[in-house]
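Batch job 17 of 40 flagged for manual review because the log was empty.
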Amino acid sequence: MNLADHILTIVTFLPTVGALLLLLVPGRGASTDNLVRSIALIVTLVNFALTLWLWAMFDNSNPGFQFVENYPWIGESIGYRMGVDGISILFVVLSAFLLPFCVLSSWNSITYRVREYMIVFLILETLIIGVFATLDLAMFYVFFEGSLIPMFLIIGIWGGARRIQASYKFFFYTFVGSVLMLLAIMAMYWQAGTLDIQRLLAFEFSPEIQTWLWLAFFASFAVKMPMWPFHRWLPEAHVEAPTAGSVILAAVLLKLGGYGFIRFSLAMFPDASLQFQSFVFVLSIAAIIVTSLIAFVQTDIKKLIAYSSVAHMGFVTMGIFAGNELGVQGAVFQMISHGIVSGALFLCVGVVYDRMHTREIEAYGGLVERMPRYAFAFMVFTMANVGLPGTSGFVGEFLTMLGTFQVSTWAAFGAAFGVIFSACYGLWLYRKVIFGALTKDSLKGILDLDRREMVVLVPLILLTILFGFYPAPILDVTAGSVELLVNNFAAATGNVPAVAAMAP
């Protein structure tokens, strides 16, 4: 068997095989828990290595889908179809990259039902990668909705004091929106006679039908990201989730909505996307400005970072619906960068929470005196979060604003205000936690990053800086697929891309 012919199946379902393996580990107790952790770590590392091989074998010059697997299931309409293009492959790699860090960050903090915890995370990895790798709309819906269940369990079982309320709120918000998407998928099947995503991309839906389909998909993706004002579930879910749960929620699960907007809304419903462009811009700017102001008055570190995530997703939706290469490229880059930076910020919160068992900002101050390595790591990720040049956060925000400026100066102007606000709350948080006098007795014995925490944070620091100075590894992969998408969008809507219009 040629590995390349089935690499996506292997990458998608290897974590589930690992979960089944954990069920066979006999016994209970500390030694068994350590064995379970080790097996889960090995499985996630092997899977990440396979995604790196997938990335290395990917042909950047081919804008279409690669590593395609196609096995009909119900006639020719519904089948097991897998494949990745220059957009989806990066999210597959990102998902596999973060799972080993989730396992390592939970090594000491999760002490009960360890086997079940690792099983749930491994199954979640399968479902997330499946979303990005599938080329069948029915399978997409199964993977997309299935990812709710493991996260529901992670928050509800291993979360904080209000975990039950947070988990049900998370499930209710995200599930209700997706019911409309299911109805839209049925309507698409009746129209096109297939759920093959490749064939649907070539099918022309009438402008009237596009409007209703766009709204139905929007109801699901807007909640999943989440866009303002559909974000009410997110801060509470982040606060109550364990550290690894917050990492995977912010770094990957929020990206399912953005990926859906690119793959379906922009690509399959171009007329409706152009029709609702101003509407999306308004919600995006509101998300950037309003949630930044809300973040500034938070007293809980996790909740502040959660609101920050909503603001940064505003740049993503703004860039996507700009409908040009700069905007979409910037949106994809911003999602990848945010996956690294936001995940790292939640890991930093977990470091001090494991030591002090509080996330209240006022409980800290002067940590630089006792935790200089931690102060440096937290500084890098804070600077990236506020979009400092030289970090990955700057590249995504700059490209989305540049792409948006070509179609809407007022939207780009509003987004620029959000950059200023993010610097305000980001630097304020860093000053309150890291600088100042170390006056609190509870902090005088706090220890700096240990070896395991360094192993987790150092790779994230390096990537944050690397992609800030050298974004080509990401932009080169996405360029061909984004260009094809934007050209198809322009042809369908009759709009000439702004870059092409300015060319001599």
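Reviewer: the log was empty due to a logging misconfiguration, but the result itself is present. The chain has one domain: 3-500. Unflagging and moving on to job 18.
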